[in-house]
Design a protein that fits this description.
32% of the residues lie in helices and 15% in strands. The longest helix has 21 residues. The protein is of the alpha/beta class. The model has no long low-confidence stretch (mean pLDDT 88).
Length: 393
């Protein structure tokens, strides 16, 4: 500022306010290894870790946690992540773990800590769920997070499962020793394999797309005609789509070489009398949240179990579940993308009662010691509280 009475050589600088951007509190993401619980899908790639660090998040990763998806500790260190023990990772503000925690670990978490996991580990581990509830941990299921247009992030995981089921089926069928030694299809003059898909969602579409690409004959069944019509359009009407008419459905199961069960609005139960008519070496893949419920008379093989190192079509029938665990790196990339995309929402929701962004609302399982998810409440035998009663839009 210059005044008329001040000579040019005697100018006095005046202090002026400098605009400052509000500082965002640095939060810490902790990622423990899930391998001890059979979970190979570590949810963060080094590229994703770098993006989180660049956004101001401190990332703490248990040593060796990236080994199942073939990323070294050095790769995460180069991305800016801190390597630590499991105990240190579990003391972060936000803990990311697709695998279940032990009840002791869950009970030791700080009140207000956020746990980003999947729905199934919570539903199938009541002791862990009870410990999380008592500790006041805010639990979010990543597979229930929605985007702005209300699409489930879980769709990408279902898509991976659908693709993986057909890749595994193809490998098992072509095995000349333990399998049938046949291709899914695509050979002139030879009748292709038949694939029967129950359901018509994202996982069903992915399985059908891959089976059709291999030359198989694909039949898709669902009582949700709107979903079935949508699937038919996506697949350019290349698969045979039908409502679940008992005779038609039973005939398709009888001749199927591969059966893929995917989530539906109303699940089906295939009883033993129908199973007895199916091929002895039929391959069944259950992509639902309740493996084995569709085919209760057939033994379930969990592909995430360490003991299941090799697969064989064998001489009997088996129902394979958790197929996404067979492609952990692809699943890790999908989970990493979800985590990076929702960082701001997680930051906003952390530690502030009543401020839950819209994409996270359907995904909240427990909130400050209250159960806010009906499925989890049924599992624990408690009453589910409406999240809107304790939070503001």
């Amino acid at each position: 500022m210059i005044t008329e009475s001040a000579p040019l050589g005697e100018l006095t600088p005046m202090e002026q306010a400098v605009a400052e951007e509000p500082r965002r509190r640095q939060i810490t993401f902790g990622l423990p290894c899930g391998l001890q619980h059979g979970e190979r899908r570590f949810p963060l790639t080094p590229e994703g870790a770098g993006l989180l660090v660049d956004s101001g998040v401190r990332v703490k990763i248990q040593r060796g946690a990236g080994d199942p998806i073939h990323y070294s500790d050095a790769a995460y260190e180069r991305a800016g992540a801190d390597l630590c023990s499991r105990a240190e990772a579990l003391q972060a503000d936000v803990i990311i773990s697709p695998a279940a925690l032990t009840a002791a670990e869950a009970g030791s978490l700080r009140r207000g800590t956020m746990l980003l996991t999947l729905l199934q580990p919570v539903l199938t581990n009541p002791p862990m769920a009870k410990a999380l509830l008592r500790a006041g941990v805010n639990v979010i299921a990543a597979d229930l997070i929605t985007t702005d247009d209300h699409r489930l992030v879980a769709d990408i995981l279902h898509e991976i499962d659908g693709c993986a089921s057909m890749a595994i089926a193809s490998a098992m069928l072509t095995d000349p020793i333990n399998g049938k030694g046949i291709l899914l299809g695509g050979v002139t003059g030879i009748v292709p394999c038949e694939v029967t898909i129950i359901g018509s969602g994202m996982g069903a579409i992915a399985a059908a797309h891959n089976a059709l690409g291999a030359g198989a004959t694909v039949r898709m069944f669902d009582n949700d005609l709107y979903s079935l019509r949508k699937a038919g359009r996506v697949l350019n009407q290349r698969c045979i789509a039908s409502a679940l008419h008992p005779k038609v459905f039973r005939s398709a199961l009888k001749s199927a070489d591969v059966v893929v069960v995917t989530p539906m609005l109303r699940s089906e139960v295939i009883h033993s009398d129908v199973v007895d008519e199916m091929k002895k070496r039929v391959l069944i893949f259950d992509l639902t949240a309740s493996p084995g419920s569709t085919f209760p008379s057939i033994p379930v093989v969990d592909l995430s179990a360490p003991a299941v190192s090799t697969l064989s079509a064998g001489s009997g029938r088996a129902c394979y579940c958790n197929v996404g665990h067979r492609v952990p790196r692809t699943a890790a990339m999908a989970l990493s993308n979800t985590l990076v995309a929702n960082t701001d929402s997680l930051r906003r929701a952390l530690g502030s009662i009543g401020d839950i962004p819209a994409p996270l609302r359907p995904a909240m399982l427990t909130y400050w010691g209250k159960c806010v998810n009906a499925q989890v409440a049924d599992t624990l035998g408690v009453r589910a509280l409406n999240l809107n009663l304790i939070s503001e839009n």
